[in-house]
């Protein structure tokens, strides 16, 4: 398996102790949220064990080796890893310099719920290590920022993308017939999110307002708008933040009025969307109006 260059932009590297083994765990998301980790090991990492979840991740550096379904597997930087529930596996480094990876653990029932309503079984990917751009792109949002939690709205979109990527890799899964998008549900969801821009709207509320399950809504929304509900909401918040800054509000005030948790939260999304920090954007805007 060759190393592949995928777009890992936005994934901040954890600077652990040089030459030491370490594990970093993302904030607890509660019983319905994901478990996400980053780890680095220089030799033997863990003895044979099992998970009752999907274990999905990316090798970030080095050579990650493990035994899975009776065969030795090797994952290089850029490769994706898919470990199915209740499958025995171990782990160790394939080189003296060690390896670093990020992983998200997702309940199988959540994956099944996120699949198209015609899906009858969990997707199975036998290879464990793969070079698949779609899966890698789906995993990056789940593990990009381990310092902060993900909202239920954000997590719904992430899981939908991961489930679809897994299903596409399972040759036994029949291609789903596309359901016509419910544009009315999408319009109601957009109106509700705009009405509560300053605070995160609950998924239960959106389900009630739209008459769609959270995962069905995520699919309808992407089919109509081209982005997930969370991404669309983030851009609307950025619109409001830019308007506030253009009106002379401070960065912290703009973040608050737009519904971001704090200025740092706004800055991360602003830079990801526009390629510059809010302060730089405001300075450029000021220069352009002189």
From TrEMBL:
Keyword Oxidoreductase part of the UniProt annotation: no
Any one GO molecular function term: DNA-binding transcription factor activity
Annotated spans, Disordered: 1-21
PROSITE patterns assigned to the protein according to its UniProt record, in alphabetical order: HTH_ARAC_FAMILY_2
InterPro entries: AraC-bd (IPR003313), AraC_XylS_family_regulators (IPR050204), Homeodomain-like_sf (IPR009057), HTH-like (IPR037923), HTH_AraC (IPR018060)
Keyword DNA-binding belongs to the record: yes
Domain HTH araC/xylS-type: 187-284
Segments passing through the bilayer: none
Keywords: DNA-binding, Transcription, Transcription regulation
Pfam family, one: HTH_18
Coiled-coil boundaries: none
PANTHER family, per database record: HTH-TYPE TRANSCRIPTIONAL ACTIVATOR RHAS-RELATED, TRANSCRIPTIONAL REGULATORY PROTEIN
Stated name of the protein: AraC family transcriptional regulator
């Amino acid at each position: 398996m060759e190393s592949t260059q995928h777009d890992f932009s936005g994934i901040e590297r954890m600077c652990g102790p040089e030459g030491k083994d370490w594990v970093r765990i993302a904030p607890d998301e509660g019983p319905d949220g994901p478990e996400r980790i980053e780890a680095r090991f220089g030799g033997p990492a863990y003895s044979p064990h099992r998970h009752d979840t999907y274990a999905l991740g990316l090798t970030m550096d080095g050579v990650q080796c493990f035994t899975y379904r009776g065969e030795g597997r090797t994952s290089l930087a850029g490769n994706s890893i898919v470990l199915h529930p209740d499958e025995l596996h171990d782990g160790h480094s394939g080189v003296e310099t060690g390896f670093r990876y990020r992983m998200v653990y997702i309940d199988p029932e959540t994956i099944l719920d996120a699949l198209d309503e015609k899906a009858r079984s969990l997707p199975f990917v036998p290879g464990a290590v793969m070079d698949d751009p779609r899966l890698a792109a789906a995993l990056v949002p789940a593990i990009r920022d381990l310092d902060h939690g993900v909202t239920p709205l954000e997590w719904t979109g992430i899981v939908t993308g991961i489930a679809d990527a897994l299903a596409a890799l399972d040759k036994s899964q029949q291609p789903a017939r596309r359901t016509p998008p419910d544009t009315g549900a999408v319009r109601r969801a957009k109106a509700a999110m705009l009405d509560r821009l300053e605070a995160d709207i609950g998924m239960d509320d959106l389900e009630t307002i739209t008459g769609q399950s959270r995962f069905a809504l995520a699919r309808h929304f992407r089919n109509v708008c081209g982005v997930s509900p969370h991404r669309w909401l983030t851009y609307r918040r950025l619109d409001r933040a830019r308007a506030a800054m253009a009106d002379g509000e401070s960065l912290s005030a703009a973040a608050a009025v737009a519904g971001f948790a704090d200025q740092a939260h706004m800055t991360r999304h602003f830079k990801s969307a526009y390629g510059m920090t809010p302060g730089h954007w405001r300075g450029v805007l000021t220069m352009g109006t002189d």
